[in-house]
Specification:
single chain, alpha/beta, Metallo-beta-lactamase, Chain A, 7 helices, 32% helix
Length: 155
């Protein structure tokens, strides 16, 4: 019989600490991977949401800006693709891995745009495993998800 059952639990859980601390390491902001999707369309991957880069005849449009610490590396990667100014920045949603670099890109001349409509992000609705994500913290609802699925979100 254990005199202090909590002691056994503490010992068992302390064996997990190295694995937990390893899993919670700081994000790696050192690498940016560029992929060409089309003639003037690219993606940039760093440590957050994937950025889409559309190069127009007079400027560059970005979809999302990832984390703020990546802004300089992202800007350098975009400069390898085009010397056009970055004028437009569209955010798919408000999470920091998509909007963290907004301020830095705004200083470079980009104008961040947020949609004011109920937008269905298909990546959240159509998942290969599990249930769809309904982002209740940012105004999502099951009703909105179902209406969007039926194509009636704005009708």
């Amino acid at each position: 019989m254990l005199r202090h059952p909590g002691t056994a639990l503490f010992i068992a859980l302390s064996g997990l600490l190295p694995a937990i601390s390893h899993a919670q390491q700081a994000p790696d902001f050192s690498k940016i991977k560029s992929s060409r999707l089309g003639e003037d369309l690219y993606t940039l991957e760093g440590q957050g949401g994937t950025i889409s880069v559309l190069i127009g005849p007079e400027s560059v449009l970005l979809v999302d800006a990832q984390f703020a610490p990546l802004a300089d590396k992202l800007h350098a990667a975009i400069r390898k693709l085009s010397d056009q100014p970055i004028r437009y920045l569209i955010n798919t949603h408000v999470h920091g891995d998509h909007t963290g670099g907004n301020e830095n890109f705004a200083k470079l001349g980009a104008t961040p745009h947020f949609t004011k409509h109920d937008v269905l992000a298909l990546g959240d609705d159509y998942r290969s495993v599990g249930y769809p994500l309904v982002d209740l913290n940012n105004g999502g609802s099951l009703k909105g998800l179902l209406e969007g699925h039926r194509g009636q979100a704005h009708g």
